Amino acid sequence: LKMSWFWFYLPLHLLMAACLCHSIKAPTTSSQQSFKTDLFNFYHSLILADGKETTVHLLKDIPKRYYFVMEEGRALAPFTITVTPCDVPIEWSILVHKASASFLGKAAQGDHDTQEVSKSQKAPSMVSTIFNYKGNSVETYMGMSSHSALYMLEFLSTERDTHITVYLTTDTTSGHLYPELPMDPRIDVIGIGHTTVTLTWKHSPSVLQHRENIQYCLLVNEKHNYKSLCAAETAIRSSGMKLPPTLALSLSPYLLEPQQVMILSNSELSIINKVSSGEVRQICMGTKNTYTVPNLSPSTQYYFDVFVVNLLTNASAAYTGTFARTLEEPEPKVMELKDGKVIQVVLDGKNQKFYSLQYQARHKKIQFTFQLCHGQVQVHIIKNGKTVASENISGLRYFSLKGKLLDTYLVQLRSTEESNSSVKVQVSSHFHKPLFPLLPESLKIKSFSKLRTCNSVTIAWLGTQEESKYCVYKKRIEDDQVWVELQSADRCSRPESRHKSEKVLCKYFYDINLQRAVTTETIKGLDAGTLYLFDVYLFGPSGIPVRYHSKVVKTRKKC
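Structure tokens predicted for Protein NDNF (559 residues):
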């Protein structure tokens, strides 16, 4: 690394002086004590804490240095340094002052970017580099020092501002801050489905020793693998989301952002983060080392990372990530439509998949008829591979199409609501024999407020130029039932499914002049201050009814 040796020597000599003052056991004068205190206060932010994980923020192209001292009186004193990049690759080095000429060390994890200087190499300068590394992997250096030594760590980010974590310890006997990984830290994919992937991995030795304080957490995303949990959390934050630190690991009751969904089931915590590049899921499953990831999208590549986490310290170690592609979704079954036959299709609102119907034309002109029974439905009609009609339907909808004999039509239906929807479908080449009745301009029922009494209401609806049968039904309901009744109404249901007591009357009417094709009806014998649901059914030549939009009216309480 490029650095100014002047600025290295100056703090080194001051720190060495301070360290010597600190190690002298003889009494000191007040002035000496004051000097030592001021010196250590000045360099306090630069001295690396022993036995504690330190977060270091790096500015682009600006080196940052930390120091630590190996004290005298400890023969072959061991120490380890673990550096975790939380974003982009960084460069970092360990340098030692020449005064500590006897040292030896080795990198815990070999890497082609790692260089090591043995104790037999004598650098001509006052400072020797004993280790350096460039990359974004978690890297640990283990070393031994046989004399009092002053070490410096220098960190540099050349891509952008970032942050890292650094852990130094000189006590290698009291256990590990980071959970241990097994000898084989790979994640194995043992099962792949259309929407699931099953993973397994070898147990961490830490789980076997401290089961109550250790757990596994899985990260699933569609972008790439992450080499540390720190890097994963940074990536989620950079997507525009405020992710609470170790949210999925500590199981703390943080308030979630609007883009987050928390799911807790079967002692497993799942955090689903909605980011611009897709979902990022964090799943913590205790000490189970086999897990089936559910609710994935078919034919999609996912990346899986497993972290073993110490719940007491929130420190984690990463297994070697893997990836897998879910199986392609099977081709949906296509149902054949027969000329003139009516079928009713129920569409799953949760999956919102297309339901396919196929028809081969036996005439040049054909007509598709759709009657929406419940919910909201999107319709696509494709002729010989080309879309000829596409829209969201409501009520009754006709599509009259022209083509050639034996043209193939594919009808695709999909619910646009989360709840289930249903629709009736018919295709026919016999225009002179319509299945459904001729419809008026509007299927709304109107009530007249001024004509309401305590025991009667007056309603009106539009008719057509064709003489048709209209039947009126009423139903008494409570105030809290209005929304449910209107939302759950099956507009394809026949009046025969209703209780006989709900039938009010049936009548025939029509008018050649559409402006006068309106009829009214006064329904009597009602209770005062009561809500009623009114329905009108229109019957055509084929006998198949069309239901008008339900109308709720309340009788007057006092008259």
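The CA atoms of residues 105 and 143 lie 4 Å apart.
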